[in-house]
Amino acid sequence: MRLVRLARNIVFDLRYGAFLGGVIPTRYLGTGAVNVANSDYAVLPHLFDRLIEHDDVLVDVGCGKGRVLNWWLRFYPHHRIVGIELDGEVAEKTRHRLRRHSQFDRMVMRIATSGRNTPSCRACSILSFRAPP
Ligand SMILES: C[S@@+](CC[C@H](N)C(=O)[O-])C[C@H]1O[C@@H](n2cnc3c(N)ncnc32)[C@H](O)[C@@H]1O
Fold first, then answer.
1. Which of 71, 87, 122, 125 has the smallest number of CB atoms closer than 10 Å to its CB?
2. Cβ distance 42 to 5 under 8 Å?
3. Which tens digit of pLDDT belongs to each residue from 70-89?
4. What angle (nearest 5°) sits at the alpha carbon of residue 18, between those of residues 72 and 133?
């Protein structure tokens, strides 16, 4: 089961340019930030399917390497999508990876420095979501 889930995550990742697995220890430990880890795609429909409405702006606060962004690009291509990531290096890699997608012009990658950077939103993905083992 775990292998099947891993294989599905890899296939979905690769459709959006790169395998995103693996954890990067946070460089901001002192601030209480969590590591750069990844959601399981299997969990995401349960979170978003009934929540998202047609005019929502989708904001992933702590988008990391971007699995939730990939999911939204695939299933919510007409929404404005915003990724906010504390780690500038990770944010830049994610922005660069997604730059060629046709939906990319709807995506802004911002580095959160204060509440003022956060756009108002109805549907937010906060940190990550994992399927049970
Ligand atoms: C578990 S990971 C992200 C998983 C990602 N949402 C996904 O779906 O695969 C959590 C991320 O939140 C970021 N983070 C932690 N505190 C943050 C903050 N205050 N503002 C923005 N990003 C933050 C971390 O750097 C890390 O990349």
1. 122
2. yes
3. 999 999 988 888 888 888 89
4. 70
Lookup: tokens for 26? 């946070």
What CATH architecture does domain 2-126 belong to?
Answer: 3-Layer(aba) Sandwich (3.40)
Output phi, psi for 48, to 5 deg.
Answer: -105, -25
Question: Ligand 1 atom closest to Cα of 129?
Answer: 8
User: Phi, psi (5° rounding) for residue 31?
Assistant: -90, -5
Residue identifier of the C-alpha nearest atom 9 of ligand 1: 38
Of the listed ranges 13-17, 39-43, 80-84, 102-106, the one predicted with least confidence: 102-106
Q: What is the pLDDT of residues 27-38, one digit of tens each?
A: 988 877 889 999
Going by alpha carbons, the residue nearest to atom 11 of ligand 1 is 62
Å from CA of 78 to ligand 1 middle = 24
- Nearest ligand 1 atom to the CA of 26 is 25
Instruction: Give the side-chain half-sphere CA count within 13 A for 60.
Output: 29
Give the pair of three-digit tokens for residue 14.
């690769």
